[in-house]
């Protein structure tokens, strides 16, 4: 009994509803404890301040006065959570695999790196122009019934569907 | 509870959950966009419904915030370019198979190319900061 509970929490992949319930509960819990909205992408501004020269950037200076704010701790926590999940399920290990992308496309590592780096640039730039990401807009915003977040999410999905289908037909054709 | 320590703990729960449910898997995210695997749609919709019910319950508490201050819900207004930004974000999401939260879980799991998505995100945020210098409307 206990062994099977441990197995299903720490080893087996969770069913969709289990993940949805925990992530959904974060929205009211973060308000209850800290009166703060769930959101991840804003914290990347703190990372800019930590890792890149940004002394002359007015936006960073005014919005990120405290370099190591709670947002950095949230980001660090998410990384640790991923690490914990991988360690406890026995899946941890540095890997150059990225699902079907690396197994089908078979690009040289440098090209893979550039591709994911380019995707990251669009994520970072796009999230700031949109004013939030999957957690801030799609989960927190829609849970609070904000029209702006519903619209942003529709455009997230449009971009994602277009990009993924182009990548699939150009680079993963036939294999998936 | 100290806010930084609290967010570290909630972050661990968030990252652990994203990883356990498979949201940090390239195949699940891209599979959703190409219509092959709708597990993540189920995760997102469940999260929205649970979050919405949770917020309604919270608003009925006599003390919705533990400190006693009034509940202050953050509302993101759309600006002129917001939806273009959202579409760019979506393209990045579909390319990398990750978003700003799940890429962090990928880092913890040891996915090397996740590191490049992550580095790109920091650079993308930096590019925004540079653009913002001369374009306050962004």
Could you explain the architecture of this structure?
The complex is a heterodimer of chains A (176) and B (138). Chain A has helices at residues 2-11, 16-34, 44-51, 58-63, 70-89, 99-105, 109-130, 134-143, 147-171. Chain A has 176 residues and is mainly alpha-helical. In chain A, helix 8 (134-143) crosses helix 9 (147-171). Chain B has 138 residues and is mainly α. Chains A and B meet through helix 2, helix 3, helix 4, helix 5 and helix 6 of A and helix 1, helix 2, helix 3, helix 4 and helix 5 of B.
Properties at a glance:
heterodimer; A: 176 residues; mainly alpha; 9 helices; B: 138 residues; 6 helices; globular
Approximate shape of chain B: globular
Query: Helix count of chain A, per DSSP?
Result: 9
Low-confidence stretches of chain B are none
Number of strands of chain A: 0
Span of the ends, CA to CA of chain B: 35 Å
| β-strand number of chain B | 0
Q: Helicity level of chain A, as a percent range? A: over 70%
SSE series of chain A? HHHHHHHHH
Q: Helical proportion of chain B? A: 55-70%
Summed over residues and divided by their number, the pLDDT of chain A gives a mean of 96
Helix and strand content put the structural class of chain A at mainly alpha
